[in-house]
Structures are given as structure tokens and as C-alpha cells.
Design brief:
Largest sheet: 5 strands, parallel
Strand content: 15-25%
Strand order of the largest sheet: 1-5-4-2-3
CATH superfamily of the largest domain: Rhodanese-like domain
Length: about 270
């Protein structure tokens, strides 16, 4: 898996063409209220909280596989489906969910570029009618821990030349939030810099432009890339972009700077 490009982002035009194709299942990860007010026909609502979990210390950890599977099966999701995840504006709920799917070895995941904001701006159809499906059979059989890293593993590699740490928080967060700070030696790349901004939505910049931005920051493919933000969603988005670009070894520090500032900020 790690050495090939993983195509993740699809356009509103693509979804419009394939939304009735039975190979695809659309998962709407917005709030239930927003889903009820209008959603893409045929989509099912998924509570994004199933892709989140915190330990007793409050740090983000891998969520419960059984809870995710039970929810997806109830919504009619099968192993054969290609899942298109839909969210608001920045796709952060979807990015986090997509990374969790990758961790559990399921890669038939796509995100709607521009999110539902772009879909609505283009006056594409929405419905308030909910669709129900027979019980699904999705299963996660092989985990993919190579995309996950803990603080202990970071501490063992923090000063090695073949690891690049990348902080995806804003400049303000790096400098001022909670006394500021970064993991020593980390490069800064704000997650929003992957987007081109329009008045009502954001879409990904051309991938070669993004790749050039990474290169300018010294974020190169030959190194093991460790991404982190406050907890996970922002870095999960950057992870997906890097996999689209063919970065072979990209890991997410899921607990993020929330954990680091408490336990490891003495470095």
C-alpha cells in the first residue's frame, strides 16, 4: 500500500455522474440536523464521533473497530463499496474518518473535493428523504499500523536525519496557543495551505503546486514523514494529500500536540 499513490479526492462532477452507481456509497458525516435539512440523494448519515476516541488522559487514540463496523453495517455498507465521504467546507471529519479507514486496511475511500459547500453553490440537488439499505457486510481484516506513530516512537527518532516532522497547525497556534511550541526540529505546513479559496467553498490546489510547496519546506519523499496537529483531523487531511502525491511513508501522530505539550514539552 505505502509505495503507491492512493487516489482520494473526487470532484462534484464525478459524484454527480456516479451517485446512482451501486458500486458507490455516500456517507454524510455532518451533524444529524444538517443531514435532515438536506443531503445528497442516496447518502446515509454517519455520526463522525464513531471515528474518535480519547484515553483516560484525554489523548486521541485509535477508536473501537467494532463500533465503527456495527454502525457501517447498519447503514448498508459492504466490503465491495467505494465510499464517498461528505462533510462541511474543509472535510476535516471526513479526513479523520478516511485515515481511520486506512488504519483498518480499507482503502476504497474518496472525499468530495469542495465538500457539500461546493455542491450546494453549484445548485446541485439535495433531498430530505432518507434512504435505507439492507444490512451490510463490511469487515476490517488487516490493520495498517505503519501509518500510526506514538510519542515513544517519536522520542526514539526525533533527532534522526531520515524522519521529517511536520506541524500542520496555524502560525498562531504554533506561537501562542497553550504557551506555543513545536516538536523539536519540526517543519511548519498549515493544513489550509493545500486549498484554493473561493467565496463559498475551498478546493484542493493543483497537486503539483502542493508538491512544490512541500519541496520548498524540505518535506521530501525519501524521508519518513510524521504529521501532527492539535489532535488529528488537520494532519489527516495532509496525510491524504501526501498519499495522493505518492509519498511512500507518512505517519500520523494521532495524540498530537495535545499530548506532547503535557508529556514531552521539556525537550
Amino acid at each position: 500500500m505505502s509505495n503507491k499513490n492512493i487516489h482520494t479526492f473526487v470532484s462534484t462532477e464525478f459524484l454527480s455522474d456516479y451517485m446512482v452507481d451501486e458500486r458507490y456509497k455516500i456517507l454524510d458525516l455532518r451533524s444529524r440536523d444538517k443531514f435532515d435539512q438536506g443531503h445528497i440523494a442516496g447518502s446515509v448519515h454517519i455520526n463522525s464521533e464513531i471515528f474518535l476516541k480519547r484515553n483516560d488522559e484525554g489523548a486521541s487514540v485509535i477508536p473501537d473497530k467494532s463500533k465503527i463496523l456495527n454502525t457501517l453495517r447498519e447503514k448498508g455498507v459492504n466490503n465491495e463499496h467505494i465510499l464517498i465521504l461528505v462533510d462541511d467546507v474543509f472535510n476535516l471529519n471526513c479526513s479523520n474518518a478516511a485515515w481511520i479507514f486506512h488504519y483498518f486496511g480499507f482503502f476504497n475511500i474518496q472525499l468530495l473535493d469542495g465538500a457539500l459547500s461546493k455542491w450546494e453553490k453549484e445548485n446541485r440537488s439535495l433531498t430530505t428523504e432518507e434512504t435505507f439499505y439492507p444490512l451490510g457486510n463490511i469487515d476490517f481484516t488487516v490493520e495498517n499500523p505503519s501509518i500510526y506513530i506514538t510519542k515513544d516512537e517519536i522520542l526514539m527518532n526525533i533527532y534522526t536525519d531520515d524522519h521529517t516532522f511536520v506541524d500542520n497547525r496555524s502560525d498562531y497556534a504554533v506561537q501562542y496557543d497553550q504557551q506555543g511550541g513545536i516538536i523539536p526540529g519540526a517543519k511548519h505546513f498549515w493544513y489550509l495551505d493545500v486549498f484554493e479559496e473561493f467565496p463559498d467553498f475551498f478546493v484542493l490546489k493543483d497537486l503539483e503546486i502542493i508538491h512544490g510547496m512541500f519541496i520548498d519546506k524540505g518535506i521530501i519523499k525519501k524521508n519518513s514523514i510524521i504529521l501532527y496537529c492539535e489532535s488529528a483531523p488537520q494532519s489527516a487531511l495532509v496525510y491524504l494529500v501526501m498519499k495522493e502525491l505518492g509519498y511512500p511513508d507518512v505517519k500520523l501522530y494521532l495524540a498530537g500536540y495535545e499530548e506532547w505539550r503535557i508529556i514531552c514539552s521539556f525537550l
